[in-house]
């Protein structure tokens, strides 16, 4: 029984991680307003190493449609500019010598629909992770049954794993609904 509980706890932890990862991926999908975490995936060449943008600069939002990036070292401005241009953000940086300004354009209806699709894909990836955790946990439980655990205990544990899967899938669905509302709001 103790081993079964350990597997159940591990399954819950892994499923929560899948939900958290999905939430962090959804944050990267922009919803028409400027948010510093939009730049989380941007890596800058910093003295020969790829470094996250937020570790070599501060990112602020002076207004709802603008991001201001102030590098800690002024010499890094051109590298930051290059990294933004080469990223998949599709934004054109403006460099004034001290700051890099990114103006976030308003989203077209077509772009909003494509962002919703992207959000749905991220959520589906999260659900795939949940199902993978469920499958792996159930496989481990079946091994325990072969090693002598009672069939009833294993069945109850598999039911709990399914219940966890359903609960965490609902959490991912809730994330998607919120993100969809956020994206479609003009």
List the helices and strands and how they pair.
Layout: H1 2-27, E1 43-46, E2 49-52, H2 53-56, E3 57-63, E4 66-71, H3 77-86, E5 93-95, E6 100-103, H4 109-146, H5 151-184
Antiparallel strand pairs: 1-2, 3-4, 4-6, 5-6
Could you explain how this protein is built, in words?
By secondary structure, the chain is α+β, with helices and mostly antiparallel strands. 60% of the residues lie in helices and 15% in strands. It contains five helices and six strands. It has helices at residues 2-27, 53-56, 77-86, 109-146, 151-184, and strands at 43-46, 49-52, 57-63, 66-71, 93-95, 100-103. A four-stranded antiparallel β-sheet has the order 3-4-6-5. The chain has a two-stranded antiparallel ribbon with strand order 1-2. The chain starts with a helix and ends with a helix. The model has no long low-confidence stretch (mean pLDDT 90).
Could you give a short description of this structure?
The chain has 186 residues and is α+β, with helices and mostly antiparallel strands. It is built from 5 helices and 6 strands.
- Describe the biggest sheet? 4 strands, antiparallel
Helical content, roughly?
A: 55-70%
SSE arrangement, N to C = HEEHEEHEEHH
pLDDT under 50 segments (min length 5)? none
The number of distinct helices, counting runs of at least 4 residues, comes to 5
Main sheet: strand order: 3-4-6-5
Instruction: Using the alpha-carbon principal axes, give the shape.
Output: elongated
Instruction: Tell me the distance between the termini.
Output: 53 Å
Mean pLDDT, all residues:
90
Oligomer: single chain
Beta-strand residue fraction:
15-25%
What is the number of E strands? 6
Rg for CA atoms: 22 Å
Structural class by secondary-structure content: alpha+beta
């Amino acid at each position: 029984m103790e081993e079964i509980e350990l597997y159940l706890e591990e399954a819950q932890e892994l499923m929560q991680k899948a939900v958290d990862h999905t939430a962090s991926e959804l944050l990267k999908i922009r919803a028409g307003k400027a948010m510093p975490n939009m730049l989380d995936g941007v890596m800058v060449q910093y003295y020969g190493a790829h470094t996250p943008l937020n570790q070599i600069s501060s990112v602020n939002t002076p207004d709802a449609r603008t991001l201001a990036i102030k590098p800690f070292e002024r010499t890094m401005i051109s590298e930051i500019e290059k990294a933004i241009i080469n990223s998949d953000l599709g934004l054109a940086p403006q460099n004034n010598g001290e700051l890099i300004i990114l103006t976030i354009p308003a989203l077209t209806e077509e772009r909003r629909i494509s962002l919703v699709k992207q959000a749905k894909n991220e959520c589906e990836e999260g659900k795939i992770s949940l199902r993978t955790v469920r499958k792996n946990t159930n496989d481990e439980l079946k091994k325990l049954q072969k090693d002598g655990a009672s069939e009833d205990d294993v069945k109850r544990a598999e039911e709990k794993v399914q219940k966890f899967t359903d609960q965490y899938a609902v959490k991912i669905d809730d994330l998607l609904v919120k993100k969809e509302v956020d994206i479609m709001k003009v």
